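pls design
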């Protein structure tokens, strides 16, 4: 029996701290938008990079981005800021994982603590060498905060699936009426 033949319950779980990762990057002039602040797409790439590293570490192999939820930009990031992008697995299913990401910025010209400038939730699917879904170890929340994140991730998953179902039903109904999109 290979690991792929097992259910997630038959695979040893991993604690949230096992794959937790931080990526740090100094923002430069090439990262800016027309307003002179760091382009949101640059931050989103850092978010996807660290989340992908966490998903790969937790799942023990390749994982691909399936969706990004609730990307929030809370404060602008400026040239010279040292940005820390922190991520951990919040929830796991059979082959998917939700990764929570916090983005912090240390202002280069201020001696103040890092400020949270963004956050996001991404869903990753673990894949094998043929690009097919593979089973991931269950995540084992360690702290009360981890347990809260796990429960919130389950709520987000329920909402994602309900939204997907509602959109599919609407499209199917429109197609049955002969309405093209």
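designed seq:
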């Amino acid at each position: 029996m290979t690991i792929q033949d097992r259910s997630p319950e038959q695979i040893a779980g991993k604690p949230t701290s096992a794959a937790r990762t931080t990526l740090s990057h100094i923002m430069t002039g090439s990262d800016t938008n027309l307003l002179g602040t760091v382009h949101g797409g640059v931050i989103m790439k850092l978010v996807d990079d660290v989340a992908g590293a966490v998903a790969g570490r937790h799942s023990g192999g390749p994982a691909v981005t399936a969706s990004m939820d609730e990307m929030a930009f809370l404060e602008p990031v400026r040239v010279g800021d040292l940005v820390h992008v922190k991520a951990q697995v919040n929830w796991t299913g059979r082959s998917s994982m939700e990764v929570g990401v916090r983005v912090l910025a240390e202002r280069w010209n201020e001696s103040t603590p890092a400020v949270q400038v963004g956050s996001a939730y991404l869903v990753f699917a673990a894949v094998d060498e043929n690009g097919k879904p593979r089973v991931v170890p269950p995540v084992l929340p360690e702290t009360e905060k981890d347990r809260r994140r796990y429960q919130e991730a389950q709520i987000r998953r329920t909402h994602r699936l309900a939204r997907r179902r509602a959109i599919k039903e609407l499209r199917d109904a429109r197609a049955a009426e002969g309405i093209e999109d």
